[in-house]
Write a structure and sequence with these properties.
Length: 242
């Protein structure tokens, strides 16, 4: 067998540097407020094969490193969550709580994972300053009455409230939620609300049917200018466009 060309050989030092960068990528993502994820999402984040990602996560979960904990849900889905040590190493907000085995509601996991899918696509398209809802909850001085799933800034500098809607709300509830968002837009907390959903046509119809919203406990006409602040996007096919 012919030896590999010199330029194709990777030194042990280069391998260690590359592995360290991948570890930092996982810790930065989870320590930013995401807290836990799956190997599939983290594989996409790192742009590695699932096999290589799983091996990395196993190493980070080992007794030697203790950066992550592993929990297997009743659905057999395996979650990788950041530990207290991992949060400290990542330089995370000290108010964030570490991942705890057995404390994750399985019903909430799909929503959390889909929010992460949106984040990865957005950041690859130039979005910045992504703030997960978990961080918004601990930032009491900036607490919003209506907490979106995340806040982020588009490439053009406009701030967006991100909502992942797995199911369409009732018309009554939607009128209240839209009003809460409009109040926060008026208060310059953000500029737009993006709804990511697997049912874009159904949500579009629901929004069209809304003629009045509730703002400060009062019924108000839902104007075209206000409607323009809301966008409905296909959760699966969105590619980061604004």
């Amino acid at each position: 067998m012919n030896p590999l060309p010199q330029e194709m050989l990777i030194s042990n030092q280069e391998k260690r540097i590359l592995a360290a960068k991948k570890r930092q990528g996982v810790l930065a993502f989870l320590g930013s407020g995401e807290i836990y994820s799956t190997s599939e999402i983290l594989s996409d984040l790192l742009q590695l094969s699932d096999r290589v990602t799983r091996r990395l996560l196993q190493q980070m979960s080992s007794e030697k490193e203790r950066l992550l904990k592993v929990d297997v849900l009743p659905t057999t889905l395996k979650l990788y969550g950041i530990t207290h040590h991992g949060l400290a190493v990542s330089g995370a907000d000290p108010r964030l709580k570490a991942f705890e085995i057995g404390k994750t509601n399985p019903g909430w996991v799909p929503h959390h994972i889909e929010s992460q899918q949106v984040r990865i696509k957005a950041e690859r398209s130039g979005w910045i300053d992504w703030v997960p809802g978990r961080v918004l909850m601990v930032e009491n001085q900036n607490r919003l009455k209506k907490l979106p799933d995340s806040l982020a800034t588009r490439p053009d500098g406009r701030k967006v409230a991100i909502e992942v809607e797995r199911f369409v709300k009732s018309r009554k509830r939607l009128a209240v939620v839209l009003g809460e968002h409009l109040k926060q837009i008026a208060d310059q907390k953000y500029d737009f609300v993006y709804y990511f959903t697997p049912h874009p046509q159904a949500l579009e119809r629901a929004l069209v049917a809304i003629q009045f919203v509730v703002i400060n406990a009062e019924r108000a006409k839902f104007s075209d200018a206000q409607r323009s602040r809301f966008r409905v996007l296909n959760l699966k096919s969105w590619n980061g466009q604004t």
